[in-house]
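User: Is it possible to get a 3D structure for a protein together with its bound compound? The compound here is zinc ion. I've pasted both below.
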Amino acid sequence: MVRIAGETLHVFFLGTAGALPTTNRNPPCIMVRHGSQTLLFDCGEGAQQQMMRARTGFAVDAVFISHWHADHFLGLFGLAHTLSFMGRTEPLAVYGPEGVHEFSELVRRLSRFTLGFPMHAAELKPGSEVRFPSFTVTAFGTQHGMPGIGFVLCEDARPGRFNRERAIELGIPPGPLFGRLQRGETVSVVRNGEAVAIPPDQVLGPPRPGRSVVYTGDTRPIHGQIGEVGRGADLLIHDATFEDADADRAREVFHSTAGEAGEIAAALGVQRLALVHISSRYTSAGNHVRDAKKKYGGEVTAPSDLTVIELPFRE
Ligand SMILES: [Zn+2]
Ligand SMILES: [Zn+2]
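Assistant: Yes, that's possible. Here is the predicted structure of the complex:
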């Protein structure tokens, strides 16, 4: 079986704290690396040092900010300075809800006009899509007492499995034509002195769904807003600021409990759930995992900072 080399998909939990950092958890920052593309979802204070510790490098293509609470964006000031210091000249895209243009202008002004690269800000609304070469990031509205958005990264479907035996039967010589068929191109071979066109569907199985990751940012549970685009995601990264015992407090301050995150994971039918934005009031996230598991039968973790999850292809 010949297979197209697929893009790897890694999620780096660079910051998993709630509003206040602790000695173990940094403010929110999730890096998603898809092949050679690197995105940050939120960029809390200290993000650049976490990138050093995780050895990810600084080649960030775009930053998505969920909302304008300081724990979600303060890291961009330092990161922008470092990128400039290191000689970056490529533009950096910064996406966020209403206010993102003022924010990027502020970063530029605080850099005293020495930022060596342009920062391209773009405001996203629920339903906005940002297209990358092999995936799309779609924004959805959150419920956090202020304008906010969450994100679904959705990889394009991959071509179906290539049937090598069938290709050889059809008279296609192993070699470059195999690759072209796998990329979805029609090829032609000479049979009995005549050119015969062979479309890819004769040697490819049905398309295989791409992988997807949902990041909610800070929010009350919002199953409806995430919607179809997040259904069956490979990974749901959900606000789980509080244990279920503190559900009243979660409602008051527009956050979710771990059990509520579990309910959303179950409703969306995701493959696994990561609980983040853990409040500094807790010394362990053990109860969070327990609470989420009461509502959701899949894999639940409360990743510590610097945890890396690789999401394999679905077969
Ligand atoms: Zn927060
Ligand atoms: Zn917040």
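Residues 1-5 have pLDDT under 50 and may be disordered. Residues 47 and 157 are 32 Å apart (CA to CA).
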